[in-house]
Amino acid sequence: MQVPAQFEYDRATTVDEAVTLLSRAGPDARVVAGGHSLIPMMKLRLAQPERLIDINDVTELAGISLEGDELRIGALARHAELLESPVAAEHFPIMRDAERVIADPIVRNRGTIGGSVCQADPSEDLSAVFSAIRATGVIRGPGGERTVAMREFHVGPYETVVADGELLTELRVPIRPGGGSAYEKVERRVGDWAVAAAGAIIWLDGSGDDVTVADVGIGLTAVGADHFVSAEAEDFLRGRPATEENLRQAGQVAAEHCNPIVDQRGPADYKRHLAAELTTRALRRAMARATGQEA
Ligand SMILES: Cc1cc2nc3c(=O)[nH]c(=O)nc-3n(C[C@H](O)[C@H](O)[C@H](O)COP(=O)(O)OP(=O)(O)OC[C@H]3O[C@@H](n4cnc5c(N)ncnc54)[C@H](O)[C@@H]3O)c2cc1C
């Protein structure tokens, strides 16, 4: 039987209390949210925090809401809430696409959005989603609040900019009208982590045969893309005609600039091939949604 090492346990009821507890405990403390990533790591002794700060009673961290021209997702919102959120689906169908293929209902009912992005697993689907759509993370610590672009949030595998004593409180996503978004994933079996996945958001200019890509965001999962994005494919596509040929070419650019590793989920060449194909599919579907051809 796998058993975690001994640890102390505190339950916070407010963000201020969580930050105070975290600051007091120092580098050996960890936040526990859904526990779906942290507890298995503790059982395997890959993580051995001396103190856990449980944030499940911090109600101010929960919920998904529209505030002006931003979608706000509390760090404690569960995967299942995001999957079922009408407001998220209306503005960012990419979130619903991704949530449909994350794990299973047991994990989705308990696992949190904040826990997902803070875990910083290179195969985490939502990290690519939030990077593609240019979300911002709100971080609270003893010195107050700061915001960090999701494209700068992950500093490496299992590492983020959230420092000791700090807590991610919220994700904010700017809503720009007229866009379409989508997420495409290949996994070995239902509910598994991605072999590779890609997410895209796109805005178009013009009409008829004269449509160009006004702006685009492209996220990649599990293929070693810097900060989960393909800036090169975005730069290639921005300002070009929104043709099938250019969407395919953008997929190729994304594949050329990622860095997949060989592991139990497949060889690097296969993952690179998937990066190209899934980027093109995500762009195609995002475009269909931007032009009202698909919900
Ligand atoms: C069987 C299984 C299958 C899965 N499949 C997938 C999949 O297909 N795709 C996918 O993307 N994910 C998958 N996951 C991962 C799942 O999405 C995450 O485990 C989960 O959502 C993490 O959230 P949590 O609330 O459980 O985090 P926890 O386990 O509680 O925490 C994870 C890490 O984040 C830190 N943390 C949590 N919240 C905060 C916060 N607010 N501020 C600062 N740090 C914080 C913790 O200290 C810890 O280091 C799977 C997990 C399991 C168990």
Set out the fold topology.
Layout: E1 8-11, H1 15-25, E2 29-32, H2 38-43, E3 51-54, E4 64-67, E5 70-74, H3 79-84, H4 86-91, H5 93-100, H6 105-110, H7 113-119, H8 125-132, E6 136-141, E7 144-149, E8 154-156, E9 159-160, E10 167-174, E11 180-187, E12 194-207, E13 210-221, H9 231-237, H10 244-256, H11 268-290
Parallel strand pairs: 1-3, 2-3
Antiparallel strand pairs: 4-5, 5-10, 6-7, 6-10, 8-9, 11-12, 12-13
Bound molecules: flavin-adenine dinucleotide.
Give a quick summary of the entry.
The chain is of the alpha+beta class and 295 residues long. The chain has 11 helices and 13 strands. The strands form 4 sheets. The chain has a 5-stranded antiparallel β-sheet.
Report the total helices.
11
Radius of gyration: 19 Å
Biggest sheet: strands side by side, in what order?
A: 4-5-10-6-7
Largest sheet: 5 strands, antiparallel
* Estimated structural class: alpha+beta
Please mark out the parts with pLDDT under 50 across 5 or more consecutive residues, or reply none: none
Spell out the helices and strands N to C. Answer: EHEHEEEHHHHHHEEEEEEEEHHH
N-to-C terminal Cα separation, in Å? Answer: 47 Å
Give a list of the ligands.
flavin-adenine dinucleotide
What general form does the structure show?
globular
What's the mean pLDDT score?
A: 96
Give the helix proportion (percent range): 25-40%
